[in-house]
């Protein structure tokens, strides 16, 4: 009986946590709107990925990530690394 009450309580908590959401209303001032446009333009025009192809970027990021996660090459097999490159 105790397990049933506990399971029901957990299910209800999960259900209510998903159904309740906070409504946030953010008023956007003209100044913030202009700032967001400026940031977008700077990122799209001056970002260091701008002049590179996406495939090259993905390969560089994968190599950097593998170097950080497995510098001694003892955790990932060659097949795993090859499968990462195919993604």
From TrEMBL:
Residues 42-85 form the Tail specific protease N-terminal domain. InterPro entries: TSP_N (IPR040573). This is Tail specific protease N-terminal domain-containing protein.
């Amino acid at each position: 009986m105790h397990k049933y009450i506990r399971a029901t309580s957990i299910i209800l908590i999960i259900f209510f946590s998903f159904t309740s959401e906070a409504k946030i209303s953010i008023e956007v001032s003209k100044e913030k709107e202009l700032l967001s446009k400026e940031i977008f333009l700077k990122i799209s025009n001056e970002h260091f990925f701008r002049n590179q192809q996406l495939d090259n970027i993905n390969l560089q990021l994968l190599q950097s990530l593998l170097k950080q996660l497995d510098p001694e090459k003892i955790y990932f097999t060659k097949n795993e690394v090859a499968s990462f490159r195919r993604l």
